[in-house]
Design a protein that fits this description.
This protein is of the alpha/beta class. 37% of the residues lie in helices and 19% in strands. It folds into two domains: 216 residues, Spore Coat Polysaccharide Biosynthesis Protein SpsA, Chain A (Alpha-Beta Complex); 73 residues, no CATH class. Helix 1 links the parallel strand 1 and strand 2.
Length: 344
């Protein structure tokens, strides 16, 4: 009888009593035979940890001394976890029955795939994909992320149109399955990101190491989304614009990075102007601050660039602009994109 891989499901918590009380029952009732459930706490000052200790005494609790954000929080918690696979699971996620087995089975059958995600649907509308991940993530030529099932703000209904296992460019941090050895080899998440796009950066680094990233539709989870920062929060705007620029600098070939970042500045200025027109000055200022951070830290982040011996796996990279396709060609569904425009 072959060994059943050990899986550690790790939920990073910060003042999340409401979500833990609501969603832990579905997670804790997993049928997977070799699983450890862990709450990693980022120095919460509510009663969330007291709640877990009282009602889920068999769940392990690992505590950080302060709030290190999503990236730093997971890095420090996972240093203390031993398992074959880690599952980074948001606290605002409800899981379906037998949600672990399909993804682990997919990874076991495909040793070149380092990380994978399930199908991510909306908790509030379970027939719709959820913004943060949907049916797997992609990246366009200019570094804009989008998903199968979600392009920009347009989210599709799930009609089974994306029910095939596939390689993607990035897997969502809302429910990220990853081989522990690959996590260690890539040195985990970039802690300077704090939150937002850190999983895209990690997946990109894994792909530069020659690994693939996968999507497993037979596992389904339901994500609330915006549990920590909602979509209209200027801090989220700041982190998204800042981290995207840093990610491009770190992972693109040097010449291409200079060119793409130059072009991205014009895209960003257009977004800044749109925020001003919409009377959202705090979001406009957030973009300006993101650019200031980028240029003030350009030499620091240049040191993070690495050369990899393995051939980069470019599958899931979109060779065109998703922004132009969306607004000029009215392509608002993934199925409307030409598959020939993706790296194979």
């Amino acid at each position: 009888m072959s060994k059943i891989p050990k899986v550690a499901v790790v939920i990073l918590n910060w003042n999340g009593r409401f979500f833990l009380e609501k969603f832990l029952p579905s997670v804790y009732n997993s049928s997977y035979p070799n699983v450890e459930f862990i709450i990693g706490d980022n120095a919460s000052d509510d009663d969330s940890i007291a709640f877990v200790r009282q009602y889920y005494p068999t769940i392990s609790i690992l505590e950080n001394d302060k709030n290190y954000g999503f990236a730093g929080g997971y890095n420090k918690i996972l240093q203390r976890v031993e398992a074959d696979y880690y599952v980074l699971l948001n606290s605002d996620v409800e899981v379906s029955q037998n949600w672990i087995e399909p993804v682990i089975g997919y990874l076991e059958r495909n040793p070149s795939i380092a990380a994978a995600q399930p199908k991510i649907l909306s908790y509030h509308n379970k027939h719709k994909f959820e913004h943060a991940g949907a049916a797997g993530g992609y990246l366009d030529y200019y570094g804009f992320p989008f998903c199968k099932g979600r392009i920009l703000h347009e989210v599709e209904d799930d009609r089974g149109q994306y029910d095939q296992e596939s390689e993607i460019f990035w897997a969502s941090g809302a429910a990220l399955f990853i081989r522990s050895e690959a996590w260690k080899e890539a040195n985990g998440l970039d802690e300077d990101f704090f939150a937002h796009m850190e999983e895209i950066d990690l997946c990109w680094r894994l792909k530069k190491m020659g690994y693939g990233i996968g999507y497993c539709p037979t596992s389904i989870v339901y994500h609330v989304g915006g549990g920590t920062l909602n979509a209209s929060n200027p801090k989220k705007t700041y982190l998204n614009f800042r981290n995207n620029m840093v990610m491009l600098q770190k992972n693109l070939p040097l010449g291409k990075a200079i060119w793409i970042i130059f072009l991205r500045l014009w895209f960003d200025f257009a977004a800044l102007a749109k925020f001003l027109i919409d009377r959202k000055p705090k979001d406009a200022w957030a973009i300006s601050r993101a650019h200031q951070y980028f240029f003030l830290n350009i030499f620091k982040n240049a040191k993070k660039r690495k050369k990899y011996d393995a051939k980069e796996n470019k599958k899931g990279n979109y060779k065109k602009s998703i922004i132009i396709d969306f607004y000029t060609d009215n392509k608002q569904r993934f199925s409307e994109l030409n598959l020939k425009d993706f790296e194979q």
